[in-house]
Each structure stands twice: as structure tokens, then as C-alpha cells.
Amino acid sequence: MDYLEKKLTSLPKVKLSRQADLKIIIKLYSLIISEKISVIWSFNFFNHKALGRTVLVTGLMIVTLMLTAVYAYASDAVLPASPLYQLKRVVEKLEEKISFSTDAKLDTYAKFSERRLQEVLVLSQQDMPSNATDRHNLNQQIQEGLNEATTNIDSMANQVQSIANQNSHNIIATKFKEKTTPANDYLKQIEDQAQINHDQEVIIKVDEIKQNIEQYQVILDENSQKNKQPNNANTDYSPEVENTGTVIEQLKPSKNLQPSSAPPNKQRDRQIDNSINNPGKNQ
């Protein structure tokens, strides 16, 4: 028996993908649920079979909803056009509400910003629809994703400043840079794809986000230096210096990224229309 256990332990362990892990979890939950159902079914609820069936059906509906919510939250395939996307956002709102500490909030906002930018990248890599309405909807989804990512990055900057104010030590310089590195990587890929798509509106928006991140980093670094001032005996120091307010208030960018009401990118749409009407011209 010990020999067999050693052999099994020595076997190579293959790391499963996120989707494979999700499938295994769902199967395990299904086995547990089926076992619980058999127990519930065998119990006669004091000979009230109708009540037993009602409880069973209700329980199945709740479990199905929970499993659907888990899938919607974890799957990268659930995009804004998916029927499950709103359920995904509901779970995210719940996650945001239960992130009580400043560090937890920072991690949550970082995750959300990466998720929105990843969705934008996938959307921008899709073939542009020939229908004008579908093109408009796709462009709007991309703009909304970029704006949501911007909002989350704003919140990240404020959370980093809050952590520094609470702990009174220099962690700003590396903290914000560390948390925004994945976002910057996604922004670079989105910008490259926008260049391919000739989507000037997305290029401008991505550039604004990157500039905001850089300016946040400068402001946070400056605030970090201010927090060091009490150690200098020759510096007139006021306790108010530590609390520098929100980083968003200090940044005050000239162009806030508000939800776009602008029409879809005309240059890109014109090129698509030309390629549709004159398919042999571009070959």
C-alpha cells in the first residue's frame, strides 16, 4: 500500500486551466446536490408530499442560480452582450460591498479594472459587424468598459493614498505601480488593436487613461514625500499635511472620462462600409 501511494505521489501533477477547474467544481457540487436531493426525497415531511416537492424545487432553483452566478463571475467568456453579464456585475457589486479593509478594496478595484480592460480587448478583437446598429452597440460597449476601468483606477489611487495615510510610512511608490502593471499591459494591447482597427476614438481614450495613471503616480510619490516631513526638524509641519485629500481631487484632469455619448468612430465605420460595398477594391 505504501509503495502504491509513493508511486501515485511521484506522478507528474498537471496544472489545470481555469475553465477545467470550474468544470470540476460544478461536477462536485452536482454530486453533493444529488446526494442531498435523495435524502430530501426520502423524507416525507410528515406525510406532506406536496410540501416536500415545493421545498425540493425551490432548493434546486436556488442552487441553479448560485451555480450560474459562479460561472458568470468566473468566466472570461461572459461579455457585455451576454445575458449573464448583468448577473456577473451583481456579484461584483456584492464583492465590492464585502471588501471592508482598505487593502481588500484596493485588490477588488485592481481586479475590476483588469477585468474591464480584458473585456475591452476581447471586444476590440472581434470582427466589426456590418450592421450599423451592431457596430454602434459594440463601440458603446468598448467605451463603457474603458470608462469603468478608469473609475476603478481612480478608486485604486485613493485607496493607495488611504493606506499610506493610515500606516504613515512610504509604501506609495511601489504599491500603485504594482497594482496598475496588469492594467498598463492591457492598455498597450488595446492600443495596438485600435491601431489595427483604425479606431482613433479608442486610441485617444487609452492615451488619456495612461496619462492619468502616470499623473497619479507622480502625485502619490509627492504625497509620500510629504508624509516624511515630520522627521525633518527644520521643516514647519502641520498635521494636515498627512491627509492630502483624495488623489482624484489633486489630479483634476482636463478631460474627465465620462460615459461617451459621441457617435461611433466615423473613420472606422466608413472604411468598413467601403469594404462591404466594394469587396474587391481593398484586395
Give a description of the structure.
The protein is mostly helical and 283 residues long. The chain folds into two domains: 17-74, no CATH class; 101-277. The protein contains ten helices and no strands. It is globular, with a radius of gyration of 26 Å. Residues 232-243 and 253-264 have low confidence and may be disordered.
Question: How would you summarize the topology of this molecule?
Answer:
Layout: H1 2-10, H2 18-42, H3 49-74, H4 85-97, H5 102-125, H6 132-167, H7 172-197, H8 200-226, H9 247-251, H10 266-277
Helix pairs in contact: 2-3, 3-4, 5-6, 5-7, 6-7, 6-8, 7-8
Largest sheet: none
Order of helices and strands: HHHHHHHHHH
Poorly predicted segments: 232-243, 253-264
Which shape, going by the Cα principal axes?
Answer: globular
Structural class: mainly alpha
Ends distance: 68 Å
CA-atom Rg in angstroms: 26 Å
Portion in strands: under 5%
> What is the mean pLDDT?
76
Keywords:
283 residues, mainly alpha, 72% helix, globular
Summarize the structure.
With 283 residues, the protein is mainly α.
